[in-house]
Amino acid sequence: MLRNSRAFLTIEASDPELVQAQLAAFTKQVPLLYFMLVTNTVALTVTHFQAAPALLTLYIPSMLYAVSLFRLVHWWFSRHRHYTHEEAIGRLRSTYRLTALLGAGFCAWSLSLFPYGDAYQQSHVAFYIANTVIGCIFCLMHLRAAALALTAIVLGPFTIFFGTSGNPVFTALALNVALVTIAMVFILLTYYRDFRALIQSQKELTARQAETQRLSDENHRLANLDSLTNLPNRRQFRAELEKRLALAEKNGTSLALGLIDLDGFKPVNDTFGHSIGDKLLIEVGERLSAFADHNIFPARLGGDEFGLIFEGQPGPDQLHALGDRICAALQEPYIFSGQTARVSGSLGVAILGDAGTTADRLFDCADFALYLAKQNFRGTTVVFSAEHEAEINELGRIQQALRAADFRTEMYLAFQPMVDADTSGISAYEALARWKSPTIGTVAPSVFIRAAERAGIIGKLTEVLMQKALEAAKTWPEHIRLSVNLSTRDVVSNKTVDALLDIIAESGIDPARLDIEVTETAVMRNFTLAAENIRRFAERGIGIALDDFGTGHSSLSYVHRLPLTKIKIDRSFIIDIATNELSRSIVKTIVDLSRNVGCVCVVEGMETAEQVAALRALGCRMMQGYYFARPQKLEDTLAYRATAETILNPVLRKTG
User: Fold this and answer.
1) Distance separating alpha carbons of residues 490 and 462, to the nearest angstrom
2) Model-level pTM?
3) Are strands 622-624 and 411-420 parallel, antiparallel or unpaired?
């Protein structure tokens, strides 16, 4: 019980929110407290001025006034100050001590006036003490300890003094004030309990609001940050681009958008697993973030695609140089637990103004520049230019014509023979797509194939070309094979592969006469899916040829991981083979590799007798090139085949 009583008479320092609330509430009551104390004291002094000595009516009250006014001014000028928890506790404790001291002082002073004066003046003393202390207690209700201490210090002596005065009126007054005091104490305790409960409720509400805000901030972070790399995600990148575009337009400053796509990332995933792939992406994000001091804002847009916002870069040359530095940083080896992975990054850049003024336009132009980089300059930077603007416009015109084209009537095939140097005969024909549009004329295959890929209609085009190629193969002897190319998009499209397998099955052509040619680029885009679709062709007995061998990044890794039956050496190794020892060594290595893994080796691009002679000396048997025949129409293949042996025998004897 003693412990509970002591708790009632101490400041609850363990609750910071309650301490601050008590201080704030009491600060508002201080003017009323001292106003009431001083005015009541002045009134009692006036009524006893003639009856009591000057010490009690002038000097002591003056000291009490001075202390009260000093405290009032002190509280008034510090009412807006923010106090730390320790400072707030100090002020409440000093208030508690001063309340006890002033309560005892005012009580002793007023009781010392009781012997002076008549009954009315004595009654004024009793009224003064009861009235003043009750008012002060109400002003101190937020400071329970101070209010209870004041009650005990003042009303205790008051009750005893007047209860034992022998005057029935004063005795009744003392009893009445005592009962009122008891009621006030209960009111005080109830009010303080409710006050503390309110503060606790506000504290809990604030905590819930803080938790809600924390969760909101976390959700915002998750919604705008990539969880793997902690870079901004596509949503945040787009919002940041829009904001910075508006500022650039307002301030007349420069800005450029860059898009990065990693080259060779999927083989890393396939070879080392997704755990290493994730670590590689994290390190890519760190390497890009290292360029932040160049006014670059990096983000991960998804998969192995990253975005960059360049600010303050003056022109294409500077952007190209900085882009090449970024690409060089991405090409450095990635080492994880003793395992080394290598990728490169192709970067397409579009400059505000040169490429457009809207986010959508910049994205389109940067994407086109990235496409060019990946097709022609892997691991380097392409900055969108006026020439690219003309090219993209032309590509758009071709795409529009493609969408309106009748593939059955407008598309046709040319066939280039593959010659067997040992038998002087034609072993196969490669079907090559051609397009003559009634609106825009003849379009190069490299152009309309790319346009069809970007327009998303390459699958439909490939299906028509496959039907035409199979119809042509029916006119040749059964020992002559047909070779058909699949585009990058075809080999990773289950829908297109399903359609092609159905077309082959319905054609009546033996699948064993057919070769499907795929490039390393097509396989690298999504090796897992590409390999699965290639196996589906192989399971039907269809041959698989790896085209442009040697131009990719990981040629050897595909030789033993795909069901290949044919390897075609790219013409870039043939151009100087008659004079370049290194080229001959490379070709010899590939020929031996093909023989060792059970693949037929086909060499493309022969244009001179010297090239043919050099290749025959290296053991090359299957050849294809302008030296033997250019791509022909179907009717020309029939005539050429009939005279091929007559034409080829002297040629091959001459180079043999």
Assistant:
1) 8
2) 0.56
3) antiparallel
Q: Is 225 exposed, middle or buried (0-12, 13-18, 19+ CB in 10 A)?
A: middle
Q: In whole angstroms, what is the distance from residue 313 CA to residue 315 CA?
A: 6
How far is CA 502 from each of CA 129, 135, 491, 499, 507, rounded to the nearest angstrom? 109, 99, 15, 5, 9
194 as an active site residue: the answer is no
Long-range contact pairs involving 77-82 (C-beta distance under 8 Å, separation at least 24)? 79/27
Task: Name the phi and psi angles at 221, rounded to 5.
Answer: -65, -45
189-193 long-range contacts (CB < 8 A, ≥24 apart) are 189/144, 191/141, 192/141, 192/142, 192/144
3-class secondary structure, 283: helix
Token duo for residue 632: 């022909």
Neighbours of 2 (CB within 10 A): 6
CA angle in degrees (0–180, nearest 5) for 582-588-590: 105
Phi, psi of 424 (to 5 degrees): 60, 25
Q: Angle 168-224/16-47 helices, nearest 10 degrees?
A: 150
DSSP for 422-454, written as a single string: TTTEEEEEEEEEEEEETTTEEE-HHHHHHHHHH
How is 565-593 classified by DSSP, letter by letter? SEEEE-GGGTTTTTT-HHHHHHHHHHHHH
Helix pair 60-77, 16-47: axis angle to 10 deg: 150
Q: Which residue has the tokens 């450029």?
A: 256
Distance of CA 656 to the CA centre of its chain: 63
Phi-psi region of 230 (alpha: psi -120 to 50; beta: other; left: phi over 0): left
| Catalytic option among 261, 263, 304, 548 | 304
Q: What is the pLDDT of residues 467-497, one digit of tens each?
A: 999 999 998 888 899 999 998 889 989 999 9
DSSP 516: E
CA distances from 378 to 38, 283, 344, 374, 571 (A): 90, 20, 8, 5, 19
**Which domains are delineated in the chain?**
2-207 (no CATH), 234-396 (3.30.70.270)
What pLDDT digit, counting tens, does each position of 239-292 carry? 899 999 988 888 888 899 999 998 878 778 777 888 888 999 999 999 999 988
